[in-house]
């Protein structure tokens, strides 16, 4: 489990990255900014391994930081709907990005030919694992 200090530090680094990108690429097109955002913010701090029921506060911190980075990079001011802005720019919201990362990891684990992973998946207790429950909650 990650500590709150580690997550806060990561959120701070995300905002610093967003400010650097915004200042260096302020005159570029929306397409370039979109690609930069997808490159730098599409995979956040092992989010496919989080069990949200235990870390709701941390989840909210990272989600707000992700949205703020989007606002910084695209210079969105005022009370705009952030999800509407994501859709207009054909980018994934934080929840969608997290579901995609979880789906990817879940598929890799379930289709793994590694004997150790296969034995863990075949174990009866695997369905009671908090991470597996979170994957089921998000994906099914």
Structure, explained:
- This protein is mostly helical.
- It has one domain (4-139).
- 67% of the residues lie in helices and 0% in strands.
- It has helices spanning 4-24, 30-41, 56-74, 82-88, 94-110, 115-122, 130-139.
- Helix 5 crosses helix 7 (130-139).
- The mean pLDDT is 88.
Largest sheet: none
Number of continuous helical runs? 7
Assembly of the depicted chains: single chain
Distance between the termini: 24 Å
Order of helices and strands: HHHHHHH
Q: What labels would you give this structure?
A:
7 helices, 0% strand, 140 residues, single chain, mainly alpha
Task: Summarize the topology.
Blueprint: H1 4-24, H2 30-41, H3 56-74, H4 82-88, H5 94-110, H6 115-122, H7 130-139
Helix pairs in contact: 1-2, 1-3, 2-3, 5-7
Structure summary:
The protein has 140 residues and is an all-alpha fold. The protein has helices spanning 4-24, 30-41, 56-74, 82-88, 94-110, 115-122, 130-139.
């Amino acid at each position: 489990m990650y500590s709150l200090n580690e997550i806060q530090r990561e959120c701070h680094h995300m905002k610093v990255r967003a400010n650097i990108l915004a200042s260096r690429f302020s005159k570029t097109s929306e397409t370039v900014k979109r690609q930069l955002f997808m490159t730098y913010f599409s995979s956040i701090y092992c989010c496919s391994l989080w069990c949200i029921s235990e870390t709701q506060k941390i989840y909210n911190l990272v989600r707000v930081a992700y949205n703020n980075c989007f606002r910084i990079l695209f210079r969105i001011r005022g009370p705009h709907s952030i999800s509407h802005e994501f859709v207009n720019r054909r980018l994934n919201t934080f929840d969608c990005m997290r579901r995609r990362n979880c789906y990817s990891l879940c598929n890799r684990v379930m289709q793994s030919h590694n004997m150790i992973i296969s034995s863990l998946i075949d174990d009866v207790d695997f369905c009671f694992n908090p991470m597996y429950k979170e994957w089921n909650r998000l994906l099914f």
